[in-house]
Design brief:
With about 220 residues, the protein is an alpha/beta fold. The chain contains ten helices and seven strands. A seven-stranded mixed beta sheet has the order 3-2-1-4-5-7-6, sandwiched between helices. It is globular, with a radius of gyration of 17 Å.
């Protein structure tokens, strides 16, 4: 209904979590400025590790007209990504793969001399994939990683340490939604009471989330 993916089509029977927030366009509002900044650079490729229902994979393929490689280990989720991709006629732009490992991610970084955007949300396994060598190979890439200290204590600080030599790293912390976040142009904005609006925007997080946004400092290493 709103936001950077306004007019994105989602099968309402094929959304992994926070369906209300995604359909309203308020999902992960905290990251929108960072993604808009990336968009000004017209990235040629997005690598999405932990694709879930394809919200980001399909959304970026649609608005940026770029290639997207999306990794998702769950077969059910891959089927959902395929459905949402077809619904938006994005099949040609999206390459759907299974579980990603460190070696495959490192190889992909090496194959993309211009860099691009890496998004990652894999419930604590981010520390395994962003190894020291992968972090070094990301020096031409924009990076957005959802961290999970509650699942793997210390991973936030360690990932920040690994990225800092090549990136300016920013921490972004989630915040509770407010009535002002609700899309004003939605027909629901008049019909629904305040409590229901907040309920629809609730992403049902276990607590405050922290993302690391990495902006590359210099030229890609050879």
């Amino acid at each position: 209904m709103s936001g950077m993916f306004a007019q994105l089509q989602l099968d309402t029977q094929a959304v992994f979590g926070a369906a209300g927030a995604k359909l309203l366009g308020t999902y992960e509002l905290e990251l929108v400025p960072a993604f808009n900044e990336v968009g000004t650079q017209s990235p040629a490729i997005v690598i999405d590790v932990g694709g879930a229902d394809g919200y980001y994979a399909v959304g970026f393929a649609r608005i940026w007209q770029c290639q997207v490689i999306v990794f998702e280990r769950l077969a059910q989720a891959r089927e959902i990504i395929a459905r949402n991709s077809a619904l938006n006629e994005s099949d040609a732009a999206i390459e759907l793969r299974g579980e990603c490992d460190e070696a495959e991610l490192h190889a992909l970084m090496q194959q993309q001399p211009r860099g691009g955007l890496l998004i990652m949300d894999i419930e604590g396994a981010e520390l395994d994939l962003i190894s020291e060598r992968v972090a070094h190979s990301l020096d031409g890439w924009q990076v957005v990683i959802e961290t999970h200290d509650f699942a793997r204590p210390g991973c936030l600080a360690e990932l920040e340490r690994r990225l800092t030599p090549t990136h300016d790293v920013q921490r972004i912390v989630s915040r509770p939604r407010e009535i002002a976040d609700f899309p004003l142009l939605s027909p629901l904005s008049v019909a629904l009471p305040a409590a229901r609006k907040l309920e629809l925007m609730d992403e049902q997080r276990p607590g405050a989330m922290t993302w690391l946004v990495g902006r590359p400092r210099g030229e890609r290493s050879q």
